[in-house]
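Practice problem: predict the structure.
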Amino acid sequence: MTKSKKYRGIIITVLVIALIFVAYYVFANLNRGEKITYSEFQQKVYNQDVTDVYGTGATFRIRVKDSKIPQEKFASVSSADYVLTVSTGDMIGKMMDLIDKYNNGELIKDSEGNFITPEVKITFNSEPEPENWLSVILPYLSIAFVAILAFMIIKSISAQNNKSMSFGKTRARNTQISKVKFSDVAGAKEEKQELIEVVDFLKNPRKYTDLGARIPKGILLVGPPGTGKTMLAKAVAGESNVPFFKISGSDFVEMFVGVGASRVRDLFDQAKQNAPCIIFIDEIDAVGRQRGAGLGGGNDEREQTLNQLLVEMDGFESNEGIIVMAATNRPDVLDPALLRPGRFDRQIVVNMPDIKEREAILKVHARNKKFSEDVTFKNLARITSGFSGADLENLLNEAAILAGRDNRPRITMSDINEAANKVMMGPQKKSHIVTERDKKITAYHESGHAILHKLLPYTDDVQEVSIIPRGMAGGYTMSRPDSDNNYVTINQLNSMICTFMGGRVAEEIIFKDYSTGASNDIEQATKLARKMVTQFGMSEKLGFINLGSTSEVFIGRDYQTQVQYSDKTAGLIDEEMERILKSNYEKAKKLLTENIDKLHAMAKLLLERETIYSEEVDKIMSGVPNEEIVKDLTAKENAEKEKLDEEKRLQQQDEKKRIEDIKNRAFEAMRKHGMIDEESSASKP
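Answer:
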């Protein structure tokens, strides 16, 4: 509920309660009692029943002998035994004459005809009817109440109408203050420098305009998800000290025709009023997709919105002092007219961080976290190749949660490794019931992958092998690159396909049978082989040629894809893919057959330990017996447990010492202020 609605409800409630109180007060003060006529009153006087008469204007309250109303309170209360209302002044005078004669003994006679003086005279009080302020203001209060109620109803209806008609207004929010600065964005040195120039241009325009430079009209941040594009925009907002309008690309599109274009116009109208300023459109591909003769044609709502955006950014009218920033991870689908100079003058590519940038990002996200001695950011940056900034932040957060769940005082390297596996593949399912047959199949399957990783060149180092289900996988072989490679050679790709074959080949060698566990491996190997043939030009028969799709399909551009090669070429593609897959399959089978003793040893160790790491894999490949490996693992686990117990003991000891120090300081303060005597101080525990 908004504040206006809340206050409106409070006002209406107060007015209703006030009206109830006024009505109650008015009706409570009305004269009560049985109404009688003047003749009935006269008869009661002759019967000597009347004791008190109190008149207010033309209304008289009457009290009789047997009344339950105390006499001393009769004048101050509104109750009466009887009520007499006279219509004329003559009747009032006649009534007063009657009471005077009664009190003077000139009204009632005895049986002998003599006048009798009554034992109790009638007390008579009369005063003019006061001007009742409630009776005066009550009509005005009623009119005011009805007027206010009508005003609120009309205002509510008007607000609803305005709301229903405000869909053409922009949803952009003007953010003047942002806590994010460029110092909070680790890495991306060149990207930050590009944006710092824009901020400096806004702060010191003459430094550039004197040289004939003009401010860039648009900046497009391009990069994979999680690389910090939105964070860079927030840093610009925090550093520029100018109005910063932020909006999502999807906020322009509604179910009503023309709403998107109207919101674009309203957004730039607000920006012109606040120039110089920055407009940031997140996920601009939602509204900036390439135009074409797809569904909806030229009347497509998205196209109308895009056309209006193009006009506002660089149309007939100039928008001096307005910088448009946008972010997207799909630059390939953006309209070319949107990307030309004059609209988006700068395209800043925000790539995945390299090893140095990952180390800097990790240090930023580790500011409020405690780590054990075995965690070094340099080593952590090395093993997290391919992680984006968002991935690294999530990695450390998951590691901290794991450490807290196990009551560890600091985050260990094992927490980080488990967090990395959890982020990439999902949590372990240790409670999942797996049959001995499935365990054995998984053990040999994963051993086949791991052994080929060690035997083949150009492969990544094996970090972990496990037969514990995780995510959608029944087991996994985790490998991570040691360095950031921008290019992949044909030998590397063939080695990758060969390692994909390792699990299926191991099952065939050991069990003389296949399982469905290799379905994902086959899918990945097939995709990679197709790319080698159709996109990377790595086919012996087809040679240096690209046969892949030039662009991706989406609604509003093309109805369907078109094959860009002949049936004969399609047959050659299939032949080359089959050749690549078959040759690597035979290679994997040959290597595993030659190293079947290592395959048995690793599978046996996995069935016993369920999870092994790079050190154990290296020992198996070196021919170290399993018994010695298990012995070393047990000693290592015991040493880690003792170290952890010692850390907990020291932590408890420090906590106990801290509490004792607090007690001692409190005791000394109490003694200093005389709250404790010297004897108590001497006997202090």
